[in-house]
Design brief:
Blueprint (H helix, E strand, L loop, with lengths): L3 E7 L2 E9 L4 E3 L2 E2 H4 L3 H13 L6 E8 L3 H19 L4 H7 L29
Parallel strand pairs: 3-5
Antiparallel strand pairs: 1-2, 2-5, 3-4
Helix pairs in contact: 2-3
Length: 128
């Protein structure tokens, strides 16, 4: 099997993934997943697509992630891994689609408007 290259996005995070056959090593920005994402919850989010199709430990993942925070990066990586698994084996697609790993989450941060303190929050009103 050759290298499968895919991309995943969430909020302002962009994850590029290179999937190869291997022993299940996940490397993010030249660091181990346990170092880059110390939170156990984020590690399970990243492993969800491989767990859904029962191939956890069969593929090595190398990822480059830019932008956003930790949760956005983890979910972008999850999407990229799910897309890569679909390219490896088309039979994985229905299970991954059912779990929602192939759908881009469209929610973004709303921009700040002038005359407001935040996007929707107004300044405090003073009657006197």
């Amino acid at each position: 099997m050759e290298v499968v290259n895919t991309i995943g996005r969430r909020k302002t995070s962009v994850a590029r993934v290179y999937l190869t056959a291997g022993k299940g090593a996940i490397t993010v920005n030249h660091r181990d997943i346990k170092v880059y994402f110390p939170s156990e919850i984020l590690q399970t989010i990243i492993n969800q697509p491989m767990t859904a199709v029962s191939v956890l430990g069969n593929y090595d993942v190398k990822a480059n992630i830019k932008g956003g925070g930790t949760t956005g990066q983890a979910e972008a990586l999850r999407m990229a891994i799910a897309r890569a698994l679909c390219e490896v084996n088309a039979e994985f697609r229905p299970a991954l689609k059912k779990e929602g790993f192939l759908t881009r989450d469209p929610r973004m941060v709303e921009r700040k408007k002038y005359g407001r303190r935040k996007a929707r929050r107004r300044f405090q009103f003073s009657k006197r």
